[in-house]
Amino acid sequence: MNQKAQASLEYVLLIAGAVLAAAIVIIIMLGSITGTNQDINVYNNQFNILSHSV
Q1: What pTM does this model have?
Q2: Would you say residue 36 has pLDDT above 70?
Q3: Whether the predicted pLDDT of 54 surpasses 70
Q4: Cα separation, 13 vs 26, whole angstroms
């Protein structure tokens, strides 16, 4: 009986590790997308300032 309990626990830990890894990847991807959008907004603001000053 202990073997089944240990196998079940290892299986649950394996799934938890996979979920944690997927969550980290998603957080990193969202962070890079947000950073890119901020860079684009800064560029657009600077372009608008320059185009209106001409």
Answers
A1: 0.61
A2: yes
A3: no
A4: 20
Place of tokens 């394996």: 14
CA 38 to chain CA mean position, Å: 16
Q: Rg of the chain over CA atoms, in angstroms?
A: 24
Which of 2, 1, 20 is closest to 12 using CA atoms?
Answer: 20
Cα–Cα distance, 29 to 3 (Å, whole number)? 39
CB-facing half-sphere around the CA of 43: CA atoms within 13 A: 6
Helix H, strand E, coil C: the string for 16-53 is HHHHHHHHHHHHHHHHHHHHHHHHHHHHHHHHHHHHHH
